[in-house]
Amino acid sequence: MVTPVIQVSQVTRVYATGATLVQALRGVDLVVKAGEMVAIMGVSGSGKSTLMHILGCLDHPTGGRYLLNGQDVTRLDRDSLAYIRNRQIGFVFQSFNLLSNTTAWENVALPLIYAGVPGKEMMARARAALQQVGLQGRELHLPTQLSGGQQQRVAIARALVNEPAIIFADEPTGALDTRTSIEVMALLQHLHRERGLTIIIVTHEPDIAAYCQRLVRLRDGMIIEDRVIAEPRQAAEEGECRA
Ligand SMILES: Nc1ncnc2c1ncn2[C@@H]1O[C@H](COP(=O)(O)OP(=O)(O)OP(=O)(O)O)[C@@H](O)[C@H]1O
Ligand SMILES: [Mg+2]
């Protein structure tokens, strides 16, 4: 059997702030196979970002076990987690998280600097990643010179530039209008279909989850629903796909 990309068993996360303990995750079991496109939903405070941070190797679980591509990453130290993130994982956030006085090209190249890729190759790969998201010709634009949807596509290019196997997107359309959201979903669906990327999207919006193949719902730090979406919406047919 092929090893799943993500195998999480009985994962808990307790936050300690002063004297208060918050049980953000209370025993989560989740298996994600390579090439799945999964939506994680749930009301505010249900543990979505906490789970995504653990799955994305940004944080450790308090208890339970996490295997990423078969490797036990539950107790790895910060440096080892950073190494894994750099090579296997791409992130996309609601607020784009682009450096403001930095061109699209340099923003995309950033993860390659950390990975120690030589200058010439770095710029070529950043340019290619921008092309993949339909932003050729915008290499030298600053974030303020781009629309919200274009900024999010720069962020997606940055997530892609290390050729990760998994993309984690936390509310990737949260700051975008409906039409632009559909464009971003078209791009993610395209990457999923054409490149076989595993994509995990945290969203509040049922309309966005509908573009995924599977829906996982959290409540109070537990998975209360996990089901296949029989006929995912196709963003390219509804909006303009620039991928
Ligand atoms: N760093 C932290 N320190 C203390 N408590 C935290 C921390 N991060 C999250 N929490 C708490 O853990 C619980 C889950 O938070 P989390 O951010 O995972 O929710 P969420 O589902 O992503 O919510 P939202 O939809 O608002 O983004 C909440 O009760 C929250 O207050
Ligand atoms: Mg959140």
What features would you describe in this structure?
It is a single chain. This protein has one domain (35-49, 79-238): Rossmann fold (3-Layer(aba) Sandwich). By secondary structure, it is an alpha/beta fold. The chain starts with 5 loop residues before the first strand and ends in a 5-residue tail after the last helix. It is built from 8 helices and 10 strands. Helix 3 runs parallel beside helix 5, helix 4 packs across helix 5 (148-160) and helix 5 packs parallel to helix 6 (178-195). The chain has helices at residues 48-55, 78-88, 104-114, 119-132, 148-160, 178-195, 206-209, 235-238, and strands spanning 6-17, 20-32, 37-41, 63-68, 71-72, 89-93, 166-170, 198-202, 214-219, 222-228. 34% of the residues lie in helices and 27% in strands. Strand 4 (63-68) and strand 5 form a beta hairpin. The radius of gyration is 18 Å and the shape is globular. The model has no long low-confidence stretch (mean pLDDT 94). The chain has a 6-stranded mixed β-sheet, sandwiched between helices. The protein has a 4-stranded antiparallel β-sheet with strand order 2-1-4-5, with helices on one face. It binds adenosine-5'-triphosphate and magnesium ion. The site of magnesium ion (MG) has 2 residues, from helix 1.
Which secondary structure elements does this structure contain, and how are they paired or packed?
Elements: E1 6-17, E2 20-32, E3 37-41, H1 48-55, E4 63-68, E5 71-72, H2 78-88, E6 89-93, H3 104-114, H4 119-132, H5 148-160, E7 166-170, H6 178-195, E8 198-202, H7 206-209, E9 214-219, E10 222-228, H8 235-238
Helix pairs in contact: 3-4, 3-5, 4-5, 5-6
The protein binds adenosine-5'-triphosphate (ATP) and magnesium ion.
